[in-house]
Amino acid sequence: MSIEKILQSLTKLDMLHTSLLEIAYKKTEAIKTGDMDSLNQLLKDEQAHVAGISQLEQQRQTEVTDYLRAKGIAPTDNPTVALVLENTNINEEKEQLGIARNKLLLTLETLKHQNDLNQKLTLQSLQFVNLTLDTLRPKPDQINYSKSEVQAPSKGKAYFDSQA
């Protein structure tokens, strides 16, 4: 068995993750501008990508397991491309696989950084909203629970004037 199927899966995974990265960049702009409609649509697109990536990742794991079995290596719980690289003797295949793997890893690292940024921006937005709400909410000493108006006595003035 050759590594061709594994290479195809890695290429497809990289394409989907690159597309997911584009969505992450668009999410950053939507968060910055407060465009909730765009953000909602981007979240839906993101979910569809994640579902596709999940399916493709399962396929990649199956292909790696099949490749390793064909080489007489017992499958592991986490069949990795690194394990395939360790057990590939053909230099051209090893090089192609290494390039595809490194490209995907770079895309994943970039995506992780962009998602971290989006998470921080979202948290800052929530903090701003909470701060704004706190300034708009009345303070407990400003709330009047009775029907008649209650005022605290003025400082410096007495209730009774002693001039008679």
UniProtKB/TrEMBL annotation:
Coiled coil: none annotated. It comes from the Bacteria. Gene3D superfamilies: FlgN-like (1.20.58.300). Pfam families: FlgN. Keywords: Bacterial flagellum biogenesis, Cell projection, Cilium, Flagellum. InterPro entries: FlgN-like, FlgN-like_sf. One of its GO terms (biological process) is bacterial-type flagellum assembly. This is Flagellar protein FlgN. It comes from Psychrobacillus lasiicapitis. The lineage of its organism: Bacteria, Bacillati, Bacillota, Bacilli, Bacillales.
